[in-house]
Design brief:
By secondary structure, this protein is an all-beta fold. The chain is built from no helices and ten strands. The N and C termini lie close together (about 10 Å). The mean pLDDT is about 95. Bound molecules: protoporphyrin IX containing FE. Protoporphyrin IX containing FE binds next to strand 1, strand 2, strand 3, strand 4 and strand 9.
Length: about 160
């Protein structure tokens, strides 16, 4: 878990991510109905030069209660070639695997999908763009997706508070 070993020096630029984050987001796309979700994200490390990443989300009902489990994603965030670079690999239970390349500028991270691979039965997702940033100590992000014959455009945005 985070805190047990010192953070690897090559993760300095990603250090602000480490911890458990929880908050609310909105999901939309031209093909679906807009909905609100709750999300929990955990970035952790064991002293080696990568962060483990796990995200779970729940669609909320009108009263803000968890109505059903939604998207999950899990993977690793690695330092890239240059000191500011980051490489991210994510796996989804929907048969999709993504590889991202990105850059960290202070407390802002921009990721672009380099490779999106899909199983035979997965939906046709072809590209992602992710923007993460610290906003008043919260982790805020916006994620654009190109999928099901639609051009790259917003699918997700959320603001998460650090809870641990
Ligand atoms: C917090 C994360 C996410 C949440 C809460 C979320 C939520 C949703 C919801 C509610 C829908 C409407 C259909 C349904 O109920 O399944 C949907 C559709 C979809 N999502 Fe997400 N999603 C998330 C992340 C992702 C990610 C990471 C991907 C790709 C790897 C993705 C790809 C899609 C696709 C392809 C559709 C179907 C669009 C269509 O068929 O019209 N989503 N998402």
């Amino acid at each position: 878990m985070a805190g047990m070993s010192p953070l690897h020096e090559r993760l300095e630029h990603l250090s602000f991510l480490v911890g458990t984050w929880r908050g609310l987001g909105v999901v939309g796309y031209p093909t679906i109905e807009e909905q609100r979700y709750e999300q929990e994200v955990v970035f952790a490390h064991d002293g080696r030069p990568f962060l483990s990443y796990e995200s779970r989300a729940w669609i909320l009902d009108d009263d803000g209660n968890r109505a059903k489990p939604s998207a999950r994603e899990t993977g690793f965030w690695r330092p890239g070639k240059e000191p500011r670079d980051v490489e991210v690999m994510l796996a989804h239970p929907t048969g999709i695997v993504e590889v991202y390349v990105g850059e960290v500028v202070f407390h802002k991270i921009e990721l672009r999908s380099d490779v999106v691979a899909r199983t035979e039965t997965a939906k046709s997702v072809t590209a992602f763009h992710r923007l993460y940033g610290l906003v008043e100590g919260d982790l805020a992000y916006a994620i654009d997706m190109a999928a099901v014959d639609q051009p790259l455009q917003p699918h997700l945005s959320a603001r998460l508070r650090k809870v641990g």
